[in-house]
Specification:
Layout (H helix, E strand, L loop, with lengths): L2 E12 L1 H4 L6 H4 L18 E5 L10 E5 L7 H7 L3 E9 L15 E3 L2 E8 L3 H10 L3 H5 L6 H15 L16 H20 L7 E2 L2 E2 L5 E7 L4 E5 L12 E5 L1 E4 L7 E4 L7 E5 L40 E2 L4 E6 L2 E6 L16 H5 L7 H4 L2
Antiparallel strand pairs: 1-4, 1-14, 2-3, 2-4, 5-6, 6-9, 7-8, 9-10, 10-16, 11-14, 11-15, 12-13, 16-17
């Protein structure tokens, strides 16, 4: 499936320092997705998109650039990223699950000052789509320009905001947006509505060609109003692990001048001037070798290599977002809340199966590795 990246900083950053230059940038992930385990479709080459906010004098809506050209083969992406700065950036590389190859299906999607991305799928989509669409108010039904489950999920989010009493058109009129609490509540309502629609699929339609219809959803969403950001890492299952999602924060995002492409998050104090959220880390910090000569990171072990080649950087630049949680960024503060519904498990040591996410070409993190 897809990969996405979120940057929120006190200061603007050159897009290329996120999109192009890091060793495992979002551009690199379009053709070398280290944590994508589906070898049948190893690339995220079905288009890409960037969304970023510009000077307030140009208006509150984000600038969106999308293309169906694979990210690794788009010269305009290099030109744009090397000359553009922003303090709030969404980036996405696509591998289709639903919807055709077209600009209208490339993320991020936006409405006024709101911007949205998704990595995953809505379970039972062919049976859910009709009722999902019929449940929307006319304005949000008409707002969908493509045919992806991701954009329809955004329409559900807009409808949820509207039903909560917040006009999605009005966010651009406020200097502070809707606020992170409102965005989070609308996102939770979106997940709840999707789960309800899937639960309503008749048993007679849950069997397809003598095979069980896949009704589990992977819902890694990211949404912003230009001020706050809310992301989810979610799977509609008690037993399965969600698709991977990481975050990192610090005072500056710097390149090690001695090795091209080696970036790390610097932390000069306890504050956070920068927050990154990504499906995959932009750098794989290969820390100290263990006694057996195998590099260890916070995510997985790599084959044995000479100690002299070990990366001296620490391994704690990237933190795993817990399964079935929301991550909120508000004024550079990061808050993580569990999504408490029927799929919630309060036991922190509970081990979920990785099979479902892996079958979708998405990486997961084994519980035993989280504690290392």
């Amino acid at each position: 499936m897809c990969r996405f990246l979120v940057y929120k900083g006190k200061d603007e950053i050159l897009l290329s320092k996120l999109i192009l230059e890091p060793q495992h940038s979002i551009l690199t992930q379009s053709y070398d997705s280290r944590l994508r385990l589906d070898t049948r479709r190893p690339h995220n080459g079905d288009g890409f998109g960037l969304g970023y906010y510009t000077s307030p004098s140009l208006g509150p809506e984000p600038c969106i650039f999308t293309s169906t050209i694979p990210a690794w083969n788009c010269i305009n992406l290099h030109r744009l990223s090397s000359k553009t700065t922003s303090n709030l950036i969404f980036a996405h590389v696509r591998a289709t699950t639903e919807g055709s190859l077209s600009d209208s299906n490339c993320h991020p999607f936006h409405h006024k000052s709101l911007m949205w991305m998704h990595n995953g799928n809505i379970g039972g989509w062919k049976y859910v789509k009709r009722n999902l669409a019929l449940g929307l108010r006319g304005k949000w039904f008409s707002s969908v320009g493509g045919n992806t489950d991701s954009e329809w999920a955004f329409a559900v989010f807009l409808d949820a905001l509207d039903q909560m009493g917040y006009d999605p058109d009005s966010a651009s009129l406020s200097e502070t947006g809707f606020g992170h609490s409102v965005l989070r509540k609308a996102l939770l309502a979106t997940i709840e509505r999707i789960n309800t629609l899937i639960a309503e699929i008749p048993d007679t339609e849950r069997r397809e060609s003598d095979e069980d219809l896949e009704c589990r959803s992977l819902l890694n969403f990211a949404v912003t109003d230009g001020h706050s950001v809310v992301c989810t890492r979610y799977v509609s299952s008690m037993k399965d692990e969600a698709a991977s999602l990481y975050w990192s924060s610090g005072t500056s995002w710097q390149e090690d001048k001695s090795i091209k492409g080696r970036y790390r998050m610097e932390r000069r104090d306890k504050g956070a001037d920068i927050v990154l959220v990504a499906s995959e880390p932009l750098t794989f910090e290969r820390g100290k070798c263990d006694p057996k000569g195998t590099k260890r990171t916070g995510f997985y072990s790599l084959p044995s290599i000479p100690v002299a080649e070990a990366d001296p950087f620490p391994t704690d630049d990237w933190v795993i977002v817990p399964t079935n949680s929301t991550l909120t960024i508000h004024k550079q503060a990061v808050m993580i809340h569990p999504i408490i519904d029927k799929y919630y498990n309060p036991n922190p040591s509970y081990t979920r199966s990785t099979g479902f996410a892996v079958s979708k070409g998405l990486d997961v993190i084994e519980e035993k590795e989280r504690g290392e």
